[in-house]
Specification:
Chain lengths: ~325, ~375
């Protein structure tokens, strides 16, 4: 039995490494810890304060481990009127959905968890539609007024944001002539798609902020109105799962943005160096991207739900359709890549 | 089967507003509620009624004051608004001076004016920080304003010995004269603070998303503002040029030249902006008070007990006009003190607004904090 297991591990060492270490489970959890720490320290600087300093020296790097241990050690509290099965189910399943989306992202030539046979971009969007469904389940199961309001806001926002995002990436699909994320990265070796798809990128970025539910689109979890939106009733390790789901969602969509518009694991085209192509560049781009996102989160006020939905349907949707038409015209006259 | 939900109309009649509504308890344990509760009647997004439930921090200050001598009463009175203690205290001390028939020396009046205007800046900074924080969970502006209060608090500590609750005004003047080096530091701080206000305006007051959230929201018309008894910067943001400092001058305000900030829009944005402009006016008042300050004593002797009688004193606190009414029966303790604070009237306007216009659930925190509510003040 053990011999069979050892031989199985030896035979599939590469696959197991990709799933469990990088870019799989360990990387995703490590990113969550890093992102929360980085957000705290970086935003603290912008707010004229220090951030965590007590745990792990001046940089406070142990603070997140301490917080996670505290949350795991706490009692799991189920509201008396809640549907306990669904309540627990949602908290377990929600972080898995964005993690499954990350499986489709290429991190280096050949370094990809699941190669979806040439349609990985479509699979990415297919999986992402599960997120609001589980979100509604968590809001409904908690049987609380704040959670149910937050859950319905989540549906409104996701529909208003996801359709423009999808249509903007249709522009990339047409320009690149493929549904495959790896192919899209390879076609950006000479020029990143942000240049020919600039209008599409603007639409994508605004919709993207709605998808990751950060300010100015943190409408479902609006803290000043709904406490913590659909997550209000969660405690202990379930709350930790919800936090993780938020940050894994951020990671998945940021990686998609980098892959579609900023050359994925390619270095900048002028310095195209085969040694450096790969993991280094995608991680560097990831850090720059989350720095910009965190800066946006403290620079703006939150939109109201009606303003956000109006922005999605009245401005982003027509612009994304215009972008598709422009891309078709450019492809017809210039010949694409 | 749902039962129809009812609310009181602005005219006190019971009216039905719809079916399938529910009440949200915003507070007392909610990120925005403070020490009170707002019961919001909503269908999920639209808000039909807000009930303000005050009284969670009622301490019976008026009754406490009946058991204290006039000077002992200074300490409990200050606890009404810790941010704005000297303005609150001015009302109490001014009423005592009126009932005892004593006049503070002119230098004391100027020192009082400087302290009160510094306190007004501190109070408005806090209100602006909370307004930004309610429009989004955006603690950046809140922490900026909190950090920028510190130089003023340091100056007040240099002058009075405490960062909060100075107990510096006493019937007949102030406790001490200005220390050496204070005026120079104050002038430097005011120059620096003028630049900080410009930073606020650029980063936040003119911010497009902040304007989207606050403009045209929670409009109080001029007529309604007068009828509902709105007070302070909120009243002036609705276009009513009423400021007790101007209309019924006390301390040194009668001898200084300053303008009343008014806006005509009457929405949440105007209320926030009025506070920014009032801070500029406060800087102006402090500079004039420094330049015109006379020499002389800062305190006159107070008689041990007043003659029987009564007195009413109005004062413009950071949140609006406060009235203090004292009845004395000739003993060393007051017979009765009635304090009518500004926040109580501002809360009434919060209750009335959803009945006159359509607001959404997301507007509720912005609406509440645009009035700069203070439960401890309203509860007393």
């Amino acid at each position: 039995m053990i011999d069979a297991l050892i031989s199985f591990v030896n035979e599939n060492l590469g696959v197991l490494f990709v799933i469990a270490i990088f870019p799989g489970l360990a990387f995703i959890l490590g990113f969550v810890i890093f992102a929360v720490w980085y957000q705290r320290k970086y935003l603290a600087r912008l707010m004229i304060r220090m951030g965590p300093v007590h745990c792990g020296g001046r940089m406070g790097w142990l603070q997140l481990i301490a917080d996670a241990m505290k949350l795991v050690a706490k009692e799991l509290i189920f509201p008396r009127a809640a549907n306990k099965t669904l309540f627990l189910f949602a908290s377990v399943v929600l972080p898995v959905i964005p993690a499954a989306m990350i499986a489709l992202i290429p991190f280096a030539p050949g370094l990809i968890i699941y190669d979806a046979a040439g349609v990985s971009l479509l699979v990415f969007f297919a999986i992402s539609t599960l997120f609001p469904v589980v979100s509604v389940i968590r809001g409904w199961a908690a049987n609380n007024k704040f959670t149910i309001i937050g859950a319905f806001r989540n549906i409104y926002l996701d529909i208003a944001g996801e359709i423009p995002v999808f249509l903007a990436s249709v522009g990339v699909m047409i320009w690149a002539g493929t549904y495959d994320l790896n192919e899209i990265v390879l076609k950006q070796a000479s020029m990143w798609f942000i240049v020919p798809q600039f209008l599409g990128f603007i639409v994508f970025f605004i919709g993207f902020l709605a998808m990751i539910e950060k300010v100015p689109f943190d409408i479902p979890t609006a803290e000043t109105e709904l406490i913590y939106g659909p997550n209000t009733e969660y405690s202990g390790a379930m709350f930790l799962n919800m936090m993780e789901a938020d940050y894994i969602n951020l990671l998945a969509w940021t990686l998609l943005m980098i892959t579609l518009y900023f050359g994925g694991y390619n270095g900048p085209p002028i310095f195209a160096d085969p040694v450096l192509n790969g993991v280094f560049w995608i991680l560097l781009k990831l850090i720059i991207a989350i720095t910009i996102i965190f800066t946006i989160t403290i620079s703006y006020a939150r939109l109201r739900i009606d303003q956000a939905v109006k922005m999605g349907w009245n401005y982003l949707l027509p612009l994304s359709i215009l972008n598709i038409l422009l891309t078709l015209a450019m492809k017809f006259y210039l010949g694409g890549v | 089967m749902t039962t129809p939900i009812k609310r009181y109309s602005p005219f006190g009649e019971i009216e039905e507003v719809g079916e399938g509504l529910f009440r949200l308890n915003v507070g007392p344990q909610h990120p925005i509620s403070g020490q009170g509760r707002f019961i919001v009647l909503t269908d999920g997004e639209r808000v039909f009624d807000i009930e303000v439930d005050i009284g969670y921090s009622h301490r019976g200050i008026e009754k406490i004051l009946e058991y204290k001598t006039f000077v002992q009463g200074i300490v409990p009175v200050e606890r009404m608004v810790m941010l704005d203690t000297s303005n609150i205290l001015m009302g109490y001390v001014g009423a005592i001076e009126k009932v005892m028939d004593i006049e503070p020396p002119p230098r004391a009046n100027y020192i009082r004016t400087i302290i009160m205007e510094m306190n007004r800046i501190v109070s408005h900074l806090y209100a602006l920080g909370l307004l930004s924080e309610s429009a989004a969970w955006n603690p950046a502006v809140f922490l900026w304003t909190t950090a920028d209060r510190e130089p003023f608090l340091d100056l007040l500590e240099m002058l009075t010995g405490a960062r909060w609750s100075y107990s510096f005004f006493v019937p007949g003047g102030v406790r001490a004269d200005i220390p050496r080096g204070f005026i120079e530091r104050l002038k430097a701080t005011l120059d620096w603070f003028e630049k900080r206000i410009e930073v606020y305006e650029e980063a936040w007051i003119y911010n497009e998303l902040f304007r989207m959230r606050t403009e045209g929201m929670g409009v109080v018309s001029r007529q309604n503002a007068i009828e509902w008894g709105l007070a302070g910067p909120n009243l002036r943001a609705s276009g009513v040029p009423y400021d007790t400092r101007k209309n019924e001058p006390y301390a040194a305000y009668g001898e200084l030249d300053f303008k009343i900030v008014t806006h005509t829009a009457g929405d949440s944005y105007a209320r926030g902006w009025a506070r920014v402009e009032e801070m500029k006016v406060s800087i102006d008042i402090i500079r004039q008070a420094i330049d015109n300050m006379p020499d002389g004593p800062v305190r006159v002797r107070m008689p041990p007990r007043p003659k029987p009688g009564e007195a009413l004193f109005r004062v413009e606190t950071g949140r609006g006009e406060m009235n203090v009414y004292i009845v004395s029966d000739g003993k060393e303790k007051p017979y009765r003190i009635k304090i009518s604070p500004a926040s109580f009237r501002n809360f009434y306007t919060i209750e009335m607004l959803p009945k006159t216009q359509e607001i959404l659930l997301a507007d509720v925190p912005v609406l509440i904090y645009s009035f700069d509510p203070w439960f401890l003040d309203a509860d007393r």
